[in-house]
């Protein structure tokens, strides 16, 4: 973006001026019955969608969405994928698949949201359709040793239903009984191992434990993006004993979009960062300042920026030890020609409650005893106008306390704006966490180009950090574009 364009977007005083051809049909077939939830995850599932496939090392590809949703630029991270494996590579082979089946359960252990189970289905269906024997591994919750309430047993009925086959369940994840079940597994069969975190060795990435897990299989597929930022035995350790070790469809797609968004975006490129604290988003903000043209800030973190500029913030959330950092970030944006936009007005409340008295005030005029809980109407318009010309937008973090309807207006407006821009051809990426909840709440999740399934992993990837579970996978063979 030229400096002139940057200046034109700097409206506030605080501103400065991508599957493989071999796997496509299997993927689409696996997706047909899963359209609603998979589309929420960003998969192209409608019958009139086309997944334009190519080798992972081809750096830029496009996904042509449903009519009105435009063309989306996708960039691939050079890791070998399950889609690169042939039928000969898979038939009769025992494949250890690390999935993320960490779904929420109610008090009666009924699944309340099966999104993560659905997300694992395309990779599993591809494997079983090619005659592989699937050994499925996952964690659930944070158990301290063997904890019955964290058993993966409740997953079996729903997974069986989605796959259209009877999924077998092991009572352990290693040992003679598990080995016997694996030996009895037919081609195209699926065995779900018990919660891998029942063993403390999992999170410690104990080599001997990883070796026991690996001994069950011939090759490895990691499709658990949500845990890819952790070097655990089932995500990183097993790769030392199983070759090949490749990514699943879900993991690869996450990399395609999240890496692509920051390495080769269509410009202008805008980033929207919200959330309560600057401290939790420092790395993301600093990384995005190196790459984006427009940076919009919202949520509780804005009050630290306000105070750093001498504004009165009332009883709003402020990190006093981050005031100098806020000043530095503003200076960095100016030096790099990035339009850093802060809200010009805010919705303040007399208490942190859904029924609090509220009013709209200028950003520089927050009264004593009042706290900011959302961005104001002028800011919504300014942010929307700034986003109008952008071609790639990544959003991580709400604009306000969107859990309270009264203070969800700003967040909901941004969600609707991104849906509108996606319909016009922009690439819109929701980077996990509360932003995902926000677009689901507003009902515009289907419109987004991609919605990430991993909160912490998304943040670390956007920060430019390497994810152990990804680094451990085999590199793709370079092919000339």
UniProtKB/TrEMBL annotation:
<keyword id="KW-0547">Nucleotide-binding</keyword>
<keyword id="KW-0808">Transferase</keyword>
<dbReference type="GO" id="GO:0043531">
    <property type="term" value="F:ADP binding"/>
</dbReference>
<comment type="similarity">
    <text>Belongs to the phosphoglycerate kinase family.</text>
</comment>
<dbReference type="GO" id="GO:0006096">
    <property type="term" value="P:glycolytic process"/>
</dbReference>
<keyword id="KW-0418">Kinase</keyword>
<protein>
    <recommendedName>
        <fullName>phosphoglycerate kinase</fullName>
        <ecNumber>2.7.2.3</ecNumber>
    </recommendedName>
</protein>
<dbReference type="GO" id="GO:0005524">
    <property type="term" value="F:ATP binding"/>
</dbReference>
<keyword id="KW-0067">ATP-binding</keyword>
<dbReference type="Pfam" id="PF00162">
    <property type="entry name" value="PGK"/>
</dbReference>
<dbReference type="GO" id="GO:0005829">
    <property type="term" value="C:cytosol"/>
</dbReference>
<comment type="subunit">
    <text>Monomer.</text>
</comment>
<dbReference type="GO" id="GO:0004618">
    <property type="term" value="F:phosphoglycerate kinase activity"/>
</dbReference>
<comment type="pathway">
    <text>Carbohydrate biosynthesis; Calvin cycle.</text>
</comment>
<dbReference type="GO" id="GO:0006094">
    <property type="term" value="P:gluconeogenesis"/>
</dbReference>
<dbReference type="InterPro" id="IPR001576">
    <property type="entry name" value="Phosphoglycerate_kinase"/>
</dbReference>
<dbReference type="InterPro" id="IPR015911">
    <property type="entry name" value="Phosphoglycerate_kinase_CS"/>
</dbReference>
